[in-house]
Amino acid sequence: MRIFGRYIWQYRYGIALFLVFAGIFAGVFFLYNLEIEAVLYAVLCCLLFLVVFVAVHFIFYYKRHRLLCEIRDNITLLAETLPPPRSLFEVDYQEMVENLLGCYKAALTGEQSRRSESIDYYTTWAHQIKTPIAAMRMILQGEDTDESRELLGELFRIEQYVAMVLCYFRLDSTSSDFIFKKYPLDAIIRQAIHNYAPQFVRKRIRLEYAGTQETVLTDEKWLLFILEQLLSNAVKYTQKGLVRITVSPEKLVTISDTGIGIAPEDLPRIFEKGFTGYNGRADKKSTGLGLYLCKQAADKLSIPVRICSEAGSGTTVFLDLRSAELEIE
């Protein structure tokens, strides 16, 4: 009915003109004292013709509308299949569509080219920067002083930021290298713990993890990245106390800490890109990218992520690693 109403509104002038002409003929017949039956018969014939014409014309109108809606929803694929124009206005509109589509394709090609160049540049930069980082690590590991340990901690943060640069570009790429297999969850968690062990030692934070025998269907590299980002936040915002990792039989991974927590008004926005929140601004070292990248990677792996926190009482993160069992027929 909505489409029919718009159809009537579009052709309202033509329908009104037709009714005016019919009224004129009926008036003339009446003034010439013709039989009232003849006048009514002529009027009814005109109305019947109008109804039949409108019904048939509306059917073609509706089919054309559905075709244009399908082309609109797949404009980049079906732009060349526009129906033949029926008026000069439709010719103009189709030419505008073709010009806009050409501009869109040119802009898209340029954007893809610039993005590809940026990815190539940062990928090359990330691999080149690893050489001086490795050299500095070797030099600092040769000295066992408080200063060298502090510098090793800062060097580790640099390595993590370099890794975040690569992950930032790879996650937004259509050709992300995801490899899904069944992996022992314990090995992935222990690898993340091993990578962050010096940070726990340096800040004297206790870590509790009892191990698990569960296996998960996931991408090992990206799940490890998610766990590392969560451990990074736990270490960064915990000054004393402990970080606890547990895995339930339902493959629900829980990472809780006794840190400064998250303000209630910040919780709805913690996964936004660049959002640091009150505690992040107070820390002066938060980039607002860690949880954003973590959420992006989790969405790619179809892992629900939920965070509960209370300011001053710590934060708990839940990763649901359950996956549907697929049967091969």
Task: Provide a short characterization of the protein structure.
This protein has 329 residues and is α+β, with helices and mostly antiparallel strands. The chain is built from 10 helices and 7 strands.
Tell me what you see in this structure.
The protein is of the alpha+beta class and 329 residues long. Helix content is 62%, strand content 11%. The chain has a five-stranded mixed β-sheet, with helices on one face. Strand 4 and strand 5 form a beta hairpin. The mean pLDDT is 83. It is found in: Cell membrane. Keywords: Cell membrane, Kinase, Membrane, Transferase, Transmembrane, Transmembrane helix, Two-component regulatory system. It is a multi-pass membrane protein. Pfam families: HATPase_c (PF02518).
Spell out the key features of this protein.
transferase, single chain, cell membrane, phosphorelay sensor kinase activity, two-stranded antiparallel sheet, phosphoprotein phosphatase activity, transmembrane, alpha+beta
Q: Can you lay out the helices and strands and say which pair or pack?
A:
Blueprint: H1 2-10, H2 12-31, H3 36-73, H4 75-78, H5 88-141, H6 146-171, E1 181-184, H7 185-203, E2 206-209, E3 215-218, H8 220-236, E4 242-247, E5 252-257, H9 277-283, H10 290-300, E6 305-310, E7 314-320
Parallel strand pairs: 2-4
Antiparallel strand pairs: 1-3, 4-5, 5-7, 6-7
Helix pairs in contact: 2-3, 5-6, 6-10, 7-8, 8-10
Specify the biggest β-sheet.
5 strands, mixed
Describe the global form.
Answer: elongated
Mean pLDDT: 83
Q: Termini, distance in Å? A: 46 Å
Helix and strand content put the structural class at alpha+beta
Give the SSE order as H and E letters: HHHHHHEHEEHEEHHEE
For this entry, what is the oligomeric state of its chains? single chain
Structure annotation, total helices: 10
Which percent band covers the strand fraction? 5-15%
Spatial strand order of the main sheet: 2-4-5-7-6
Query: Low-confidence runs (pLDDT<50, min 5 residues)?
Result: none
**Gyration radius from CA atoms, angstroms:** 34 Å
Question: How many distinct beta strands?
Answer: 7
EC number: 2.7.13.3
Transmembrane segments: 12-32, 38-62
InterPro entries: BphY/WalK/GraS-like, HATPase_C_sf, HATPase_dom, His_kinase_dom, Sig_transdc_His_kin-like_C
Enzyme class: transferase
